[in-house]
């Protein structure tokens, strides 16, 4: 990694700036409770929030053209569930809003706000996510120049087009972009293959090991380490 070439930074969101699993568990729990109350026939199949997941898998398999739009895939999954048990599929939108409100409630890792404050004083920052998380709902708007999602772009990491769009939004060339994320294939390999640089966020070192030791990327365990790597002042 060459810090001297970096003129902007893009960030993955889920599991990079906050843990994703608690959001999903809470959102699916709220969705299940709402469905059982408002569409009682769903209780016959919703024995636990995990029972929602096969419906999402069916949506992914049956609608490959929606692979970049996770919100619409979730709506399709809810409509399929409602239809299967004979409930009104028009309830799907209200059910989705219950799910989405909880999905957007995130708890930042404690190092995120101090880190973004340091980095944003030096670099334009851009959010780049394959999901439907939102920097605005997370209270991070002031640190970012903008945000891009696979659903709005029609391209998802690790496609080069996603990283090139992030560089364009930041006002730099791809070779001047550093992308930071937790997923080796999507974030690190994707960024490197797109001509950008990458920092792999490994918050739990015991759970991950670089598939290709010695590759041209940085490895950081938190935002403070990233700031120090880039020599950002306090």
From TrEMBL:
<dbReference type="InterPro" id="IPR036412">
    <property type="entry name" value="HAD-like_sf"/>
</dbReference>
<keyword id="KW-0378">Hydrolase</keyword>
<protein>
    <submittedName>
        <fullName>HAD family hydrolase</fullName>
    </submittedName>
</protein>
<dbReference type="GO" id="GO:0009231">
    <property type="term" value="P:riboflavin biosynthetic process"/>
</dbReference>
<dbReference type="InterPro" id="IPR023214">
    <property type="entry name" value="HAD_sf"/>
</dbReference>
<keyword id="KW-0460">Magnesium</keyword>
<dbReference type="Pfam" id="PF00702">
    <property type="entry name" value="Hydrolase"/>
</dbReference>
<dbReference type="InterPro" id="IPR006439">
    <property type="entry name" value="HAD-SF_hydro_IA"/>
</dbReference>
<dbReference type="InterPro" id="IPR051400">
    <property type="entry name" value="HAD-like_hydrolase"/>
</dbReference>
<dbReference type="GO" id="GO:0016787">
    <property type="term" value="F:hydrolase activity"/>
</dbReference>
